[in-house]
Write a structure and sequence with these properties.
By secondary structure, the protein is an alpha+beta fold. About 70% of the residues lie in helices and about 10% in strands. Strands 1-2-3-4 form a 4-stranded antiparallel sheet, with no helix packed on it. The chain is elongated.
């Protein structure tokens, strides 16, 4: 009997040591992986800081610039405010964040003891009185290896990641509203140019008809002038349709029906002066919401990887029960209860490789998130570099087109005088006139492109919303 008892105690000690060594081996793998992640994080932050210093814009201003300050139009600010309150996609993101908060509460609750109260009744044949049993039980898993706390930290980091994703959705919404507004203004300006073109074409048509009636012009000149008028009217109809579609886009972003948005044509204008890039503050790209969200996701996956390895370690739980049985429900409510306390140490021995497979999956998901972070970072740097390059080129285009318009206008007036003197034909005059309006349209388009690119640059630099 003593030999059997000694043998049993020896087996228990051996099994316990084996379980501890197995779990600690898994924990060691987790810590090694965490060390590699920390090393990567340090190297990535250094690279990010160097990239930001290289491409960021400098200024002496300490004021933080916001996206909706890039284009100073009072009417536009009202629509931005309305969109932040009523955009359906943004509201969905807000609800998604609220869901993550509740999910974190569920995970955090695992660290707290659970308490249950149960009441049952029993009636047995040939027994006059019923028997009622009341039991109050509590259980608590002791977080020996900090596994539950790791799961809690992962859930809290999920909240931070979701917050950053919500900030990114807000930023994208504001930039889209600004773009939609500028698109409406663009179409309105193009319509105005086409109407000016049409007015001049009608004047030319009237002149040509008069000359044709006097025998000074031929039928070809008349047909060509009429064709130009018809083409311009078609262009006006097309621009009006594009303006209508741009308004519908703004309606969707603001989150209202088309009848609820009234935009006066007098409100549609481009800022006369673009804010110089030198007035944009220095921005560290690590503050971009999408970059921060991705980095928080890495840290959350790291905690989940630790928790997956710690799931292979022994666990210790405590439970206590107070129970009482009596002939009435009131008397059984723990008037003189019997108590019982139980401590339990358990460890997984064989589960078909399920826990080790889950740990491997957690490692792969962590590695995947690391690559997602690198991709996000590379895209962020590329977006800023592209926007800065476009800023330079679009500014040059504006200057060249402005010079071209001035030259074309001088040429038009010269050709008009020569035409009236009979020195050039109508085709030369119309060609010069069309060139002037085409150049004006191009300048309006380039101005729009530069404003839109300025918005893209602010978004790429991580500017937020007031």
């Amino acid at each position: 009997m003593n030999n059997l008892s000694t043998f049993s105690r020896t087996n228990i000690v051996i099994v316990s040591l084996a379980l501890l060594l197995t779990g600690c081996a898994g924990l060691g793998k987790s810590q090694d992986y965490k060390a590699k992640l920390n090393d990567f994080s340090v190297r990535t932050e250094l690279a990010l800081a160097k990239a930001s210093n290289h491409i960021s814009l400098t200024t002496n201003s300490s004021k933080r610039l916001c996206l909706n300050e890039l284009i100073e139009i009072p009417a536009l600010n009202a629509y931005i405010t309305q969109a932040l309150d009523g955009n359906p996609e943004l509201q969905q993101s807000i609800q998604a964040l609220n869901i993550v908060y509740y999910q974190a509460d569920i995970v955090s609750a695992q660290l707290q003891p659970s308490v249950e109260l149960g009441v049952s009744g029993q009636r047995t044949e040939d027994v006059v009185q019923n028997r009622y049993t009341t039991a109050l039980s509590t259980s608590w898993e002791i977080d020996l290896w900090n596994k539950l706390n790791d799961e809690k930290n992962a859930a809290l980091l999920d909240i931070e990641s979701q917050k950053q994703e919500l900030a990114q959705v807000r930023n994208l919404l504001v930039t889209n509203v600004m773009r939609a507004w500028l698109d409406i203004a663009l179409q309105q300006k193009l319509i105005e140019i086409e109407y000016s073109r049409l007015e001049n074409q009608l004047q030319n048509l009237e002149l040509i008809e008069s000359r044709y009636g006097s025998g000074l012009d031929n039928l070809d000149s008349l047909d060509n002038a009429r064709a130009s008028v018809s083409q311009t009217k078609a262009n006006i109809a097309d621009k009006k349709q594009q303006k209508f579609e741009a308004k519908q886009t703004l309606n969707l972003l603001v989150g209202v029906f088309s009848t609820e948005v009234k935009i006066e044509d007098s409100e549609l204008f481009f800022p006369e002066v673009l804010m110089p890039t030198a007035y944009m503050p220095v921005q560290n790209l690590s503050q971009r919401p999408d970059v921060r969200a991705s980095f928080f996701s890495i840290e959350a996956e790291a905690f989940r990887t630790d928790a997956a390895y710690k799931a292979m370690l022994p666990s210790l739980s405590l439970s206590a029960t107070l129970s009482e049985t009596d002939t009435s429900p009131l008397a059984s409510l723990l008037t003189d209860p019997i108590w019982q306390i139980l401590g339990q140490l358990s460890a997984p021995i064989f589960q078909g490789g399920r826990l080790s497979t889950q740990a491997s999956i957690a490692e792969l998901e962590l590695a995947q998130q690391v690559w997602i972070y690198q991709e996000t970072l590379l895209e962020a740097i590329s977006e800023v570099e592209i926007a800065l390059s476009k800023e330079t080129n679009l500014k040059a285009q504006q200057e060249h087109l402005q010079d071209a318009i001035e030259s074309a206008q001088r040429s038009y007036y010269s050709f008009r005088e020569k035409y009236q003197q009979g020195l050039v034909d109508i085709f030369d005059l119309l060609s010069t006139q069309e060139q002037t309006y085409d150049l004006q349209s191009q300048l309006i388009q380039v101005t729009y492109n530069r404003l839109a690119n300025r918005i893209d640059l602010g978004l790429a630099l991580g500017l937020g919303v007031i």
